[in-house]
């Protein structure tokens, strides 16, 4: 059966741990596996802006022995010029896997249903599971391996309704983390995602909480993470999103409430002075460059895992 990574819980807790361990092995030696030797192509499609995702997937596919086939979403116009279904048939017959950054999760699911090859979510409006996988690798890197993840407290503050919030809930619960989302009342996570995360946490020994002050969210936390207040596609809402998140800004005072050795994470791009101060983002507890590098290792491990089961 072809396996996909459309949302964080497409990997079971055991599988997620194996992928994290393989990613840590790729950190030590970038050429330990070559599942794409041939070279076989991986289509990497962008309907939204990108930096880290483009660099890490193209580099990663090349390092796995494959050919990174960049598809410009503006030219392909998937879902407008040509249906998702027709595109899936065309691309799926030629490549080993499809990596797609787009808006609607339902389009990604349709691609996965019809392409006949593994499909990877490179960010949708609903989830950003590759980033959370990289963040878990980063936590494992700094805290003694994948086995050390379960039981850690992971605080995410900011927009509780965005893709990062949803992926931290699902991916964090899968890893057995205690996930706290600190967000204003008007920006709650999707109820179904929250329920799914609670169910997973009950199996892994983790937990999930949504709170409405930054103090409650970060108190004693092992990780403090945040994200932009205005996600890609929400540019029209920028003005109305200026004020509600201000109390959730990650500054030195908020960070002082977390564990003394807490790690600071941000998926980037960061807006210094908005969701996080420059002092914290560029400070000694920040691991944002490790997170960005770990996109490469995490995605290579993920592609290897999926391709070996395709
Ligand atoms: N929530 C952000 C994540 C960027 C990597 C966005 O969707 O724009």
Descriptive account of the structure:
This protein is of the alpha/beta class and 310 residues long. The chain has helices at residues 13-28, 52-63, 73-76, 84-92, 105-115, 129-142, 163-174, 191-204, 214-218, 252-255, 278-281, 288-309; strands at residues 41-46, 67-72, 97-101, 119-121, 153-157, 178-182, 207-211, 223-226, 263-266. Bound molecules: norvaline. Residues 123, 128, 162-164, 227-228, 231-232, 267 line the site of norvaline. Norvaline is lined by residues 123, 128, 162-164, 227-228, 231-232, 267.
Ligands (ions, cofactors included): norvaline
Q: What does the overall shape look like?
A: globular
Major beta sheet summary: 5 strands, parallel
> Could you give the distance between the termini?
6 Å
Task: Please mark out the parts with pLDDT under 50 across 5 or more consecutive residues, or reply none.
Answer: none
Name the beta content range. Answer: 5-15%
Class from helix and strand fractions: alpha/beta
Strand order of the largest sheet: 7-6-5-8-9
Number of β-strand runs: 9
Amount of helix: 40-55%
The whole-number mean of residue pLDDT values reads 98
Pattern of helices and strands: HEHEHHEHEHEHEHEHEHEHH
The helix count comes to: 12
Give me the Rg, rounded. 18 Å
Helices and strands, with pairings:
Layout (H helix, E strand, L loop, with lengths): L12 H16 L12 E6 L5 H12 L3 E6 H4 L7 H9 L4 E5 L3 H11 L3 E3 L7 H14 L10 E5 L5 H12 L3 E5 L8 H14 L2 E5 L2 H5 L4 E4 L25 H4 L7 E4 L11 H4 L6 H22 L1
Parallel strand pairs: 1-2, 1-3, 3-4, 5-6, 5-8, 6-7, 8-9
Helix pairs in contact: 1-6, 1-12, 2-12, 4-5, 6-7, 6-12, 7-8
């Amino acid at each position: 059966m072809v396996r996909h990574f459309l949302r964080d819980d497409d990997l079971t807790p055991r599988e997620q741990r194996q992928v994290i361990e393989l990613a840590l092995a790729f950190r030590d030696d970038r050429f330990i596996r070559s599942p794409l030797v041939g070279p076989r192509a991986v289509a990497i499609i962008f309907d939204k802006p990108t930096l880290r995702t483009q660099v890490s997937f193209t580099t990663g596919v090349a390092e796995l022995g494959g050919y990174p086939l960049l598809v410009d979403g503006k030219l392909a116009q998937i879902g407008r010029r040509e249906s998702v279904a027709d595109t899936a048939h065309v691309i799926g017959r030629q490549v080993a896997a499809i990596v797609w950054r787009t808006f609607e999760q339902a389009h990604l699911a349709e691609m996965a249903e019809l392409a006949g090859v593994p499909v990877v979510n490179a960010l949708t409006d609903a989830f950003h599971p590759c980033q959370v996988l990289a963040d878990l690798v980063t936590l494992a890197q700094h805290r003694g391996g994948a086995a050390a993840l379960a039981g850690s407290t992971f605080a995410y503050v900011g927009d509780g309704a965005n893709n990062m919030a949803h992926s931290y809930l699902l991916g964090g619960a899968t890893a057995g983390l205690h996930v706290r989302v600190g967000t204003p009342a008007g920006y709650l996570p999707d109820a179904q995602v929250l329920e799914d995360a609670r169910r997973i946490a009950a199996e892994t020994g983790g937990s999930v909480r949504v709170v409405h002050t930054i103090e409650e969210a970060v108190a004693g936390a092992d990780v403090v993470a945040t994200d932009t207040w205005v996600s890609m596609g929400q540019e029209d809402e920028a003005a109305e999103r200026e004020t509600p998140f201000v109390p959730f800004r990650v500054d030195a005072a908020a960070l002082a409430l977390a564990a003394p050795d807490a790690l600071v994470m941000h998926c980037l791009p960061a807006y210094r002075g908005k969701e996080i101060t420059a002092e914290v983002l560029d400070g000694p507890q920040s691991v944002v460059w490790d997170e960005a590098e770990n996109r490469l290792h995490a995605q290579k491990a993920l592609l290897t895992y999926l391709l070996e089961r395709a």
